[in-house]
Design brief:
581 residues, alpha/beta, Enzyme I, Chain A, domain 2, Glucose Oxidase, domain 1, TIM Barrel, eight-stranded parallel beta sheet, 16 strands, 47% helix, 13% strand, globular, phosphotransferase system, Pyrv/PenolPyrv_kinase-like_dom
């Protein structure tokens, strides 16, 4: 049996199936006597404390092992659990309708989850699974039931389930669980994020199949292609076993490139920098041979917490990265909040089109005290090493000049207070809005460097919401319009002698490396895990080959034709990539 689902965590897992059913909570009673109401409220409050301790333990475990990004998921769970509205609604049902704690908890949290499911943004709709995770914590606490048995496996296995919550994935034994597949779930769910952090091959959203699987069946989970194969035939099994061995061998080969330069066969030097979201990721970039940090996303400081980060919070986080990187450049992007990254502390109103609304630099210029706090911290950190500042989502010259004016004012405040900072700190912008890409020549005179942010540039150029499942198939980095904009920006920057990098997901995929070199790019900023792959491509090609490829791509009319060309040429040069693409 072969199933197609959604690939959420790469890799190939082969093993015997362990089939996990849904938690079965049998509510022993629906109502309580009038004189037992306050005792029932006390029982609910005690369950809240037990559930909170469980979630805190998950948060601390995941933060310790996977970093703050994954840990923040469970901090968000804790905040939902502590939401006064949930507590009030549950206690109201107990007091006014004499519901048992179990029934009241289930009713309130199911309604809460349904509210999320109805929201049009799939990223936010997926939070319904988080609410159901919290419901399970509370019901287990109330009923005294243990967790499901998938945490105590005695032999390597592939876990199959209708759905897994983030808590359940976080508690999987990585020595025993080779991979997992679920009938439900989406690519933006917190379950997917935790799986990626743990490095467990995973496929979600396959649709119903559990009734046709028995425990002990051999299962293949292909986390690269989103495929689940139950009871594979011998030839398929051999093929996947060989593919898994080839991938391991290729990874070993890539590791030999760590200390070698990213230089093409004809001697052109390509610079490879790392993208990070959390300070601890800088060390991994360094281990993989990054020449600096080309994009330090700073939104994590605002998310998953009850208060706004202080200047000292910012300063310590930035200094940690700068110290790790030594004299290598660290480009700190000012916060890109809004859209799908909304800090609860700001109390922002819901917008019909948040990606086109108050986000990023627009939000910074609206909430000036937040912006000033961050700029002060970056400038203070600039004396610790090689720091650069980058403004995101600039769309007009007026906007850039307003941001620069704010930076100048903060500099003057620091100077008056005799706080040291680097006055000549390099300043750049993200090129991710078509208005800037088209008129880039006007912006190049006002900045020291630019970075192409293709994630949003593609979205805005093609008018495709990259989080919308209905149109995500139209979101494509190789559309002719996107390639022409990238080529134009690189050409103009080269003509004016302004350094240009590309820091979107496009730069992290080896499929695009030859094309980008051919378009004139000489500086990549990529995810830490992609550094060695991109370096491998750079060291396997000549600039002439890449330019010829780019010329052909620019003449094509369809993204699918460009992709086919890129895949064909890459695999011809480096056959091992056929195994991981």
């Amino acid at each position: 049996m072969r199933l197609q689902g959604i690939a959420v965590s790469p890799g190939i897992a082969i093993g015997k199936a362990v089939v996990i059913g849904q938690d079965s909570f049998s509510i022993p009673r629906e109502y309580v006597e009038a004189d037992a109401v306050e005792q029932e409220v006390a029982r609910f409050r005690e369950a809240l404390q037990v559930a909170a301790r469980e979630i805190e333990n998950n948060r601390d475990l995941v933060t310790r092992e996977l970093g703050p990004k994954s840990g923040a998921i469970f901090q968000a769970h804790l905040e939902i659990l502590e939401d006064p509205k949930i507590r009030e609604d549950v206690e109201s049902l107990i007091r006014n309708r004499q519901y048992s704690s179990e029934k009241a908890v289930s009713l309130v949290l199911r309604q809460f989850a349904e509210m999320f499911r109805r929201l049009p943004n799939p990223v936010i709709a997926d939070r319904a699974y988080d609410v159901l995770d919290i419901e399970r914590h509370l019901l287990r606490a109330l009923l005294g039931q243990p967790h499901r048995s998938l945490y105590h496996l005695t032999s390597p296995a592939v876990v199959l389930a209708r759905n897994l919550t983030p808590s359940e994935v976080a508690n999987l034994d990585r020595k025993m669980v080779r991979g997992f597949a679920t009938e439900l779930g989406g690519p933006t769910s917190h379950t997917a994020i935790v799986a990626q952090g743990m490095g467990i091959p995973a496929v979600v959203g396959t649709g119903p199949f559990l009734t046709e699987v028995s425990g002990g069946d051999i299962v293949i989970v292909d986390g690269d292609r989103g495929i689940v194969i139950v009871r594979p035939d011998e030839s398929t099994l051999r093929e996947y076993e060989e593919e898994a061995r080839a991938i391991r061998a290729f990874i070993t080969e890539l590791e030999k490139l760590r200390d070698l330069p990213a230089e093409t066969l004809d001697g052109t030097r390509i610079e490879i920098y790392g993208n990070i979201e959390f300070p601890h990721e800088a060390a991994l970039c360094l281990q993989n041979g990054a020449e600096g940090i080309g994009l330090y996303r700073t939104e994590f400081l605002y998310l998953g917490r009850n208060d706004l980060p202080s200047e000292e919070d910012h300063y310590q986080a930035y200094c940690e990265v700068v110290r790790i990187m030594g004299d290598r450049p660290v480009t700190i992007r000012t916060f890109d909040l809004g859209a799908d990254k909304v800090p609860l502390q700001l109390g922002l109103e819901k917008e019909a089109n948040p990606c086109l609304g108050l986000r990023s630099i627009r939000l910074a210029l609206r909430y000036l005290p937040l912006f000033q706090t961050q700029l002060r911290a970056i400038l203070r950190a600039s004396v610790c090493g090689n720091v650069q500042i980058m403004f995101p989502m600039i769309s007009t010259l007026a906007e850039l000049r307003q941001a620069k004016l704010m930076l100048a004012e903060v500099m003057e405040d620091l100077a008056e207070s005799r706080i040291p900072f680097r006055r000549d700190i390099p300043l750049g912008i993200m090129v991710e809005v078509p208005s800037v890409a088209v008129t880039i020549d006007r912006f190049l005179d006002e900045v020291d460097f630019i970075s192409l942010g293709t994630n949003d540039l593609i979205q805005y150029t093609l008018a495709v919401d990259r989080t919308n499942r209905n149109v995500v198939n139209m979101y494509n980095a190789t559309e002719p319009a996107v390639l022409r904009l990238i080529h134009h920006v690189i050409q103009e920057a080269s003509r004016k002698g302004v350094p240009v990098s590309l820091c979107g997901q496009m730069s992290s995929h080896p499929l695009h490396t030859m094309l980008l070199i051919g378009l004139g790019l000489r500086k990549f900023s990529v995810a830490a895990h992609s550094i060695l792959e991109i370096k491998k491509v750079c060291r396997s090609v000549t600039v002439q080959q890449c330019e010829a490829l780019a010329k052909r791509a620019l003449e094509m009319d369809h993204a699918r034709d460009v992709q086919a060309l890129l895949r064909e040429q890459l695999i011809k040069l480096i056959p091992a990539f056929s195994r991981i693409m």
